[in-house]
Each structure stands twice: as C-alpha cells, then as structure tokens.
Amino acid sequence: MLKQLISIILIALLASCSTTEKINQPNVLVIMVDDLGYSDLSIYGSKDIKTPKIDSLMKQGTRFSDFTANCCVCSPSRAAFLTGRNQDMVGVPGVVRTNDDNNWGYMTPGVTTLPQILKENGYRTSLIGKWHLGLKSPNTPNEKGFEEFHGFLGDMMDDYWHHRRRGNNYMYHNDKLLKTEGTHATDLFTDWSIEELRKAKKDSRPFFQFLAYNAPHSPIHPPKNWLNKFQKENPGASDKRAKIGALIEHLDYSVGRVLKSLKDLDLEKNTLVIFTSDNGGKIHFGATNGPFRSDKTHVYEGGLKVCTSFTWPGKIEANRVTDFEAMTMDLFPTILEAAGINDSTKIDGLSILEEVVDQKQKPFVERNQIYTWLQGYKKHALRKGDWKLVKDTEKSSYELYNLENDPYETKDLAKANSQKFNELLAIMTAHLKEANKVNWRRPSQLK
Description:
By secondary structure, the chain is α/β, with parallel strands linked by helices. The chain has helices spanning 2-24, 52-59, 74-83, 114-120, 185-202, 224-233, 239-264, 301-304, 331-338, 353-357, 418-435, and strands spanning 27-33, 62-64, 67-68, 124-130, 148-152, 164-165, 168-169, 171-173, 176-177, 207-212, 271-277, 308-311, 320-322, 326-327, 369-375, 377-384, 387-391, 399-402. The strands form 4 sheets. Strands 9-8-5-4-10-1-11-12-2-13 form a 10-stranded mixed sheet, sandwiched between helices. Strands 15-16-17-18 form a 4-stranded antiparallel sheet, with helices on one face. The N and C termini lie far apart (72 Å).
C-alpha cells in the first residue's frame, strides 16, 4: 500500500513538473504587415503618421535599426520566415500568383516549416490574414503546419472591402470558402486574431499566432473616417500621403486592439511579440523609407530595411534600440530557441535570441546575407559585414557599397575596390548557380 502511495505521489510530481514546463514555454505572436515604409511609423521618424499603439509595443521591448527583409517583395520574405531558409532554396524566388504565366513560386514539397515544428512540440498554431505561398494543395496553410487558418490565400486584394483578386475569392476559414464582403480586411483580420486568442486562452497548449495583415499594401483603401481624420490633422498632405497615412493609422489602431485583447486575456506576460514587415514601402503609393535609397521591388536599402521589434515582458529589456544586423529568416531559429525546442531541420537563419534577451551576441560578420528577387531576371544583392554588392536591374552592372561609410548607397566602389568586389561576386555567383537548380514552377507550369 505504501509503495502504491509513493508511486502515485511520484507520478503527480512528474505531471506537475511537466505542466510547469508547459506553462513557462512562451506564447508567440508574430505580426507581419505588408509594404510598410521604414519611416512610416512615428517611432521610426514619421512626422505626420501617428502610430501610438505600435510605438508603445516597441517601447516595451527591443527595436532594430538594421533589420532587413529577405526580399524586396512579399512571397519570398514569407517563405524565408516560415522555413528559415533563403527563399531560393525552397522554391519561392518570386511572387506566387493566380495565373501560371505570371507565377514565380512553388514551395518545395516536403520542406519543413516553423508551425509544423511548433505543432509537433505541443503548440497551438494559427495563421490569421495573408498567406501568399500557394493557392492549392499541397501548399495551403493547414498543410504547412497551421491547424487554424482564417484569412486570405492570395497576394494583394483588388479591394479592401470586397476581398477579391482577379475575380477570385481567396478568403477562407481552413478549407471553407467565406463570404466576407463589406468589412474592411484589416478589421476582419483583427477580429479573427482576437477570436483566435480567446480560443487559445482556453487551450492548455502555448500558442503561435502568425498575424499577417495586407495593409498597407496597395490598393491604398483606408476607411473613410480614418482618411477624414488624417486630412484634418494634416491639411497639407498630398492625396497619396493622406490615403496611405490613414491606412497605416487604421492598422495601428487595429494592432492596438489585438494587444489589448492579449492583455485583457492575461496572456501578455508570457507572450513573445515580434513585429515586422515583409519588405520596404512603395514610394509610388505615398510611402517613405527615410533617407535610404529606393523602395519596394528594389534591393537597395529602401526596399529591404524593415521596422522590427521584439517584446517579451520580464525577458527583453524595454526602451532599447539595437543596430545588430539580422534578417527575416532569423526569426525561425529565434522563436524555436525561445520555445526551448531543439530541431535538426536544415536552415540558413541564425538565432538572435541572445541579442534581444542578453544583449551580448556577437555580430554575424562572416555571414553572407543574400537578398534575391529572381523573377523574370535576376535582381539580387549580397551583404557581408559592411560591404554590399548590388545588381538591381536586368541591364545594370554590379555595384559595390560600404554601408558603414555610405549607408544611403550613393558611391559605387566597384572599380575602386576590385578585390572586395571580386570576393563578393564569387559568393553571389555560387549562390545563383545553386538557386537555379531549385524548381520554383508549380506542376501546371511544367506541362
């Protein structure tokens, strides 16, 4: 009888330890916005656009001044985040689109994703909002590790209220097609995010939610009341600036709703919140990237630098800004390390948890940071330390910049420093050779 009692006590203690470990494992909320200009948050220098909710989030943690997206356009950066790989190595060198004659991506079958690993390790996984990595099986969110998908399969919406793309309805709840016309997409995704947080609160598992807004991607369709508000507060703003400013301020308000829900549900204390964008803003639509050269669809700094922050109460110091160099694919290993998960999946990203938590991480000075948009022709760049090699158009020759001395890429040093130029060119050429071996065409394009 005594042995049985001791056995019961031991089992209870083990169960208690297991539960404690589970409770301590953090929730993870990744908020990725679409085409946000580097200087279009007030905390990143905007004088006209007011973003108090996102600013407040960033002030509670560590904000990056030198975080870059893997690509200057949407799909590749999302593929890099979810696989921890350079996008070329997983079949997404360009934008996934509806029609075969203009599609530039098909995620490699069998590639392991972040939500798959988290799910296998006891996480509740969800994607709310924009997917943009496949329209059909096997490249749908549910098949790539998200047990809950509530959002938009496609790329851009033709209208923020009708949610169509080239006449197709891509709004789904898991595999169920939805009729959602009439509500602004930002409001829909916010409502669905909060709904999912409420469900997660009742779940014993920690959660991973990827909240991917379409805003402020074109078309620039802010709600009318937000546009009126912005124009009233900024009477001298151009029509373009007013519209994108209103769309971003509405987005900020919506992020605030999600963060308030996180707090109200008592989930805030043990949640790592990461905020980022998939690429830089598009100047043509009124965005600003500060002093950095160019914008979205270009591999100069204006198309790659993104507003990024990490917040984790009690773990990450508040009101800190770091100039540590990191990029989108680094989020994958960082999240796994934060969750205490060891996984042998091959990745290209490197964890930056030591930088955001302990502030002691050494720079990745030997890393080759490769930025590619291999769509139609090969537009690409390579950064190694302070040096950056750039080829931004089909006809252009390679350019070389030293970002420490020339962060705005104004002085081409290709001829002046031929040794560094040749060194980086050899690395870039080798990468492109390997990238060209990876299939990026969907089956219907191979016929």
